């Protein structure tokens, strides 16, 4: 659940801010509405070599009240203009605070309360982009769209999204061979003949696992690698 929520939050931030640049710095702390439950997503997070923080806030107040709270909080932090957008039913506030960029997403719940995600990213670029872990190699010609690293407790996770030029079967064979050479075993596979455009495979090596999803779509062939291992 947290991973899917993070991915949608990241997509919204990109839609609001475009190709923003990042650098390590202390993120500004936004005060949550009174009575909120605040959860930090992971101990640390790196997206394409760039540090990021995400807070998940739940509060029994309607979205209009929550938006007013965060508008005032952002205005109190710095001068400048707050960008406001509505994307897929979510209300988005985005604003630069010092050398950081803050995005607040507010989503109404079925009970009339609010589900909030607060994401903070630095403005300047990193010294270098983060390389992929060696066991998450991709076929030649692949283009990495996103490389997300998350530390949560005793586990470290990577989510890699890429576009592959190779055919679905060739991409599948490459990953089987590459992971097999590194000691991973294929423990589950969903390659139904009814949907030849999609493959899902689970590989394991001791306490490490890699979930592979390969899917054809209108924009090309997408490869998603979800990997988890001890920190």
Can you give a write-up of this model?
- The protein is of the alpha+beta class.
- Helices cover 19% and strands 45% of the residues.
- A hairpin with a 2-residue loop joins strand 12 (198-205) and strand 13.
- It is elongated and about 55 Å long.
**Beta content:** 35-45%
Radius of gyration: 20 Å
Main sheet characteristics: 8 strands, antiparallel
Series of secondary-structure elements, N-terminal to C-terminal: HEEEEHEEEEEEHEEEE
Adjacency order of strands in the biggest sheet: 3-2-9-10-14-13-12-11
Mean pLDDT: 81
- Ends: how far apart? 21 Å
- Briefly note the structural class of the backbone: alpha+beta
Number of DSSP helices? 3
Tell how many strands the DSSP assignment holds: 14
Q: Which residue ranges are poorly predicted, with pLDDT under 50 across at least 5 consecutive positions?
A: 1-25
Give the structure's gist in a few sentences.
The chain is α+β, with helices and mostly antiparallel strands and 231 residues long. 19% of the residues lie in helices and 45% in strands. The protein starts with a helix and ends with a strand.
Topology:
Layout: H1 2-17, E1 37-40, E2 44-47, E3 50-51, E4 53-59, H2 63-77, E5 83-87, E6 90-97, E7 100-108, E8 114-122, E9 143-152, E10 155-164, H3 168-181, E11 185-190, E12 198-205, E13 208-217, E14 220-230
Antiparallel strand pairs: 1-4, 2-3, 2-9, 4-8, 5-6, 6-7, 7-8, 9-10, 10-14, 11-12, 12-13, 13-14
């Amino acid at each position: 659940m947290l991973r899917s929520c993070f991915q949608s939050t990241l997509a919204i931030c990109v839609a609001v801010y475009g190709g923003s640049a990042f650098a390590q710095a202390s993120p500004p702390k936004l005060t949550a509405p009174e009575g909120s439950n605040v959860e930090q997503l992971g101990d640390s997070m790196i997206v394409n070599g760039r540090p990021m923080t995400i807070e998940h806030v739940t509060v029994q107040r309607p979205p209009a009240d929550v938006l007013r709270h965060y508008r005032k909080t952002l205005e109190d932090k710095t001068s400048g203009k707050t960008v406001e957008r509505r994307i897929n039913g979510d209300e988005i506030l985005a604003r630069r605070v010092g050398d950081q960029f803050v995005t607040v997403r507010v989503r109404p719940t079925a009970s009339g309360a609010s589900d909030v995600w607060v994401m903070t990213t630095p403005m300047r670029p990193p010294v270098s982009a983060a390389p992929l872990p060696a066991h998450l190699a991709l076929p030649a010609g692949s283009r990495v769209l996103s490389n997300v690293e998350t530390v949560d407790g005793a586990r470290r996770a990577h989510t890699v999204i890429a576009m592959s030029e190779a055919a679905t079967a060739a991409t599948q064979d490459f990953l089987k061979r590459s992971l097999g050479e590194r000691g991973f075993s294929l423990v589950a596979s969903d390659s139904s003949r009814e949907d030849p455009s999609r493959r899902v495979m689970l590989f394991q090596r001791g306490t490490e696992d890699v979930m592979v999803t390969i899917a054809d779509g209108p924009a090309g062939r997408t490869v998603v690698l979800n990997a988890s291992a001890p920190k």
